[in-house]
C-alpha cells in the first residue's frame, strides 16, 4: 500500500476492528500505539466491544502490508493527518458519528468505511467539509477495487468559515443532495441484500442461474424502480424484483402499470399489480421477455444427473 502522506506528517487511522479477523491482526501487528474506541463516551458506548478504533499510525506499520496482501478488498478503515492530539481528535470525530436522515431519524454515519467517505465527501459543501473534518487536515481511503489507488480529501483551509470546536451531535441533516451522492453506495448494498433474499425466497426458480447473471437482472430492475422511488427500502425493492422475475420481465413499461405506480403508494401499487398481471395478462404480455429470466430446464438437470451417476459407477 502506497503511503499517502508526507513522511513527517502526524498520521492516524480509524480501523473497523469488528470485521472478521481484523481485531486479531491489528493487535498482533500494531505494537502499542496510542488508541481509543471511537464509540466511547457516546450514545453508542454500549457497543464499545465492536467500536472502530482511532489510533496513531505511520508508514512503517506492519498492519498495512498485511491488509494489502491478504485482504485487499476489505473495508478496514481510513487514514488521515492532523496536528491535534489523539484525545482532541476523538472528541471531535465522536460528534460526527450520527446525522439526521430525510425521515428525521438519527442514524449512524459510517464515514470510516472507505466506500462511504469519498461519496459522502463530494456531497458536502466546503463549509460542511470543514465542519466535519475539524482538526483533520487530509483524509485518505482506498478506492473500490484497488489498494494503491487512494482517494484523498483536503478540507478547505480558509479560516473562519465554520466553528467546528462548537460542533454538536447530530451535526448534519441530510438533504436530497447528500442522498443523491450516496446513491451508488446504497445501490450496491441494496443489490447484495436482494441477491441474498432472492436466493432464499426463490431458490427453486433461480438455482440454475449464476450470481453474476442474477446481479445483472437485479441491477436492471432497480434502475427501473428508481424513477418511482430513488431510495426504496428492501421490501419494496424485493417486491418489484419478484414481479419482474416471476410474472412479467418489464411490467413497469406497461401504461397500465405506470398509472398504478404513479397514483398509489408503491407498496399498495405493487401488491395490486401482482394480482392484475395474473388476472389480466393481456395488458402485460407485450412487455414480457421470456429470455430475460431463463426458465429452469428440469429435463436437462435430470439427464446430467443420470450421466454423472453412470460415470461414477464406471
Keywords:
314 residues; alpha+beta; globular; two-stranded antiparallel sheet
Q: What would a concise description of this structure say?
A:
About 45% of the residues lie in helices and about 10% in strands. With about 325 residues, the protein is of the alpha+beta class. It has two domains: about 10-175, no CATH class; about 180-305, no CATH class.
Helices and strands, with pairings:
Elements: E1 11-15, H1 22-29, E2 35-37, E3 53-57, H2 63-70, E4 77-82, H3 86-94, E5 98-100, E6 106-108, H4 117-123, H5 126-133, E7 136-142, E8 150-153, H6 176-201, H7 203-206, H8 211-225, H9 234-246, H10 255-263, H11 266-279, H12 298-313
Antiparallel strand pairs: 1-3, 1-4, 2-3, 4-7, 5-6, 7-8
Helix pairs in contact: 4-6, 6-8, 6-9, 8-9, 9-11, 10-11
Inertia-based shape: globular
Q: Sketch the major β-sheet.
A: 6 strands, antiparallel
DSSP summary: helix tally:
12
What is the spatial order of strands in the main beta sheet?
2-3-1-4-7-8
Kindly, what is the distance between the CA atoms of the first and last residues, rounded to a whole number of angstroms?
Answer: 52 Å
Number of domain units: 2
Determine the strand fraction and express it as a percent band.
Answer: 5-15%
Helices and strands, in N-to-C order?
EHEEHEHEEHHEEHHHHHHH
Query: Which regions are unreliable across 5 or more consecutive residues at pLDDT < 50?
Result: none
Number of DSSP-assigned strands:
8
The rounded Rg comes to 25 Å
The averaged pLDDT comes out at 89
Q: Could you say which structural class the secondary elements and strand pairing correspond to?
A: alpha+beta
Helix content: 40-55%
Amino acid at each position: 500500500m502506497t503511503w499517502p502522506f508526507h513522511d513527517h506528517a502526524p498520521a492516524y487511522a480509524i480501523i473497523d476492528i469488528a470485521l472478521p479477523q481484523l481485531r486479531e491482526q491489528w493487535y498482533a501487528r500494531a505494537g502499542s500505539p496510542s488508541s481509543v474506541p471511537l464509540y466511547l463516551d457516546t450514545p453508542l458506548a454500549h457497543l464499545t466491544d465492536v467500536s472502530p478504533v482511532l489510533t496513531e499510525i505511520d508508514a512503517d506499520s506492519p498492519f498495512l502490508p498485511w491488509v494489502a496482501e491478504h485482504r485487499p478488498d476489505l473495508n478496514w478503515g481510513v487514514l488521515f493527518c492532523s496536528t491535534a492530539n489523539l484525545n482532541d481528535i476523538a472528541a471531535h470525530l465522536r460528534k460526527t458519528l450520527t446525522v439526521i436522515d430525510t425521515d428525521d431519524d438519527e442514524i449512524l454515519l459510517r464515514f470510516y468505511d472507505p466506500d462511504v467517505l469519498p461519496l459522502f465527501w463530494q456531497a458536502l459543501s466546503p463549509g460542511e467539509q470543514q465542519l466535519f473534518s475539524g482538526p483533520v487536515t487530509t483524509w485518505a481511503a482506498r478506492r473500490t477495487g484497488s489498494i494503491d489507488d487512494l482517494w484523498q480529501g483536503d478540507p478547505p483551509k480558509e479560516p473562519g468559515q465554520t466553528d467546528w470546536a462548537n460542533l454538536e451531535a447530530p451535526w448534519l441533516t441530510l438533504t436530497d443532495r447528500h442522498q443523491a451522492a450516496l446513491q451508488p453506495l446504497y445501490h450496491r448494498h441494496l443489490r447484495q441484500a436482494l441477491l441474498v433474499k432472492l436466493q432464499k425466497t426463490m431458490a427453486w426458480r433461480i438455482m440454475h442461474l449464476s450470481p453474476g447473471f442474477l446481479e445483472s437482472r437485479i441491477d436492471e430492475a432497480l434502475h427501473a424502480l428508481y424513477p418511482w422511488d430513488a431510495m426504496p427500502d428492501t421490501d419494496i425493492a424485493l417486491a418489484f424484483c419478484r414481479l419482474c422475475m416471476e410474472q412479467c420481465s418489464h411490467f413497469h413499461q406497461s401504461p397500465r402499470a405506470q398509472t398504478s405506480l404513479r397514483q398509489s403508494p408503491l407498496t399498495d401499487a405493487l401488491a395490486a399489480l401482482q394480482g392484475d398481471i395474473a388476472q389480466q395478462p393481456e395488458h402485460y404480455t407485450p412487455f414480457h421477455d421470456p429470455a430475460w429470466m431463463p426458465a429452469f430446464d428440469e429435463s436437462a438437470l435430470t439427464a446430467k444427473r443420470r450421466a454423472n451417476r453412470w460415470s461414477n459407477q464406471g
